[in-house]
Design a protein that fits this description.
globular; 6 strands; alpha/beta; 25% strand; 26% helix; 6-stranded mixed β-sheet; 138 residues
Length: 138
């Protein structure tokens, strides 16, 4: 088995549309890499304490679902900080499951802080952002 690859997506694995993150996961898997696809599911603030990470498999790809609060762009910065803590707490366990030299691929800047605060020094973080979203255009 080749290198572990962890893809942090802004879309759910079960999305009806095939997004770039899905294509990357399937392509790496087909090439023999061990792929983990990390997605978010939105929860209510009252569910934070009892929220849990879930895991499933689909054609050799491990799907990890992390609970988080919905982002409200420009509304409340406290939500971003709280999400970083929620996601960071769940990511500790997820990143412990993958190789210490895994490639981590994030599809949005929102994954940055939780990943950077939990990744091992030997794990490489890369950003692969869609340029068709105005928010990410330069």
């Amino acid at each position: 088995m080749k290198q572990d690859v962890v893809i942090f997506s802004m879309f759910k694995w079960s999305s009806n549309l095939m997004h770039r993150e899905h294509m990357l996961a399937k392509s790496f898997n087909k090439l023999g890499y061990k792929v983990t696809f990390v997605e978010r599911t939105y929860i209510k603030p009252t569910q934070v304490l009892k929220s849990k990470t879930t895991s499933s498999m689909d054609n050799g790809i491990r799907i990890i679902t992390l609970p988080s609060l919905p982002y409200m762009k420009g509304k409340i910065t406290a939500i971003y900080k709280m999400n970083d803590k929620i996601l960071g707490g769940h990511l500790r366990g997820v990143l412990g499951l993958v190789d210490s030299k895994a490639w981590l691929i994030a599809s949005t800047p929102n994954w940055g802080r939780p990943i950077l605060s939990n990744k091992k020094k030997t794990q490489i973080l890369a950003y692969d952002m869609s340029d068709d979203l105005r928010a990410f255009a330069t």
